[in-house]
Amino acid sequence: MLDMVRDPRYIAPLAVLLAVILVSAALGGRALPSVGASGRPSATPGPTEVLSREDQLLDARRALDLGKLRDALTLYRRRNGTYPSTAGRITTLCDQPSDAGCALSSLGAKLPFSDGELPYWYASDGSTYFALIARAQQAGDTSRCPGPLPDELAVAPVMCIRSEAGGG
């Protein structure tokens, strides 16, 4: 466990989780109302609005899940020479048995293919990159997201991890 905490790949997700815990403690579990540009309540909080403790924890868990999946994809490529390929299309990671990401099950580890409600998404050309995408409660940096996103993802905030071959 201590080696995992020292591993730089886990520092950012752990920092996010710590920030979520600190903000939640400071707010005492209260969430500020989300108001859109029109002055009416907004269904999707903006980047500076505070989410409920549950939403913050859900996004932190999603970030940790994507980190685990990134590590599994790196290991898969090391063992097989390629990433599972979607021919560059964005598909669910392993929602259907035919999804390319289901190949990660061959690693023997129990991997999170969904957040418990919604599936995670995946894209790869098999050789030069992969991208992992999760729905989120709050919009974040989407510069690492492939585009265009499928309709199921384009209607809500997302978080993405993208890796280039050799870049880990």
Task: Characterize this entry briefly.
The chain is an alpha+beta fold and 168 residues long. Helices cover 34% and strands 12% of the residues. It contains 4 helices and 4 strands; from the N terminus they run H-H-H-E-E-E-H-E.
The computed structural class is alpha+beta
| SSE sequence, one letter per element | HHHEEEHE
Uncertain runs are 29-45
- Structural shape: globular
| C-alpha termini separation | 21 Å
Compute the number of helices.
Answer: 4
Write down the overall mean pLDDT: 80
DSSP E strands, number: 4
What proportion of the residues form beta strands (DSSP E)? 5-15%
Q: What does the radius of gyration come to?
A: 17 Å
Report the sheet with the most strands, covering strand number, pairing sense and barrel closure: 4 strands, antiparallel
Instruction: Enumerate the strands of the largest sheet in spatial order, edge to edge or round the barrel.
Output: 1-2-3-4
Whole-number total of structural domains: 1
Helix content: 25-40%
Assembly state (oligomeric): single chain
Describe this structure in words.
This protein starts with a helix and ends with a strand. The chain is α+β, with helices and mostly antiparallel strands and 168 residues long. α2 runs antiparallel to α3. It has one domain. The protein is globular.
Keywords:
168 residues; alpha+beta; four-stranded antiparallel β-sheet; 4 strands; 34% helix; globular
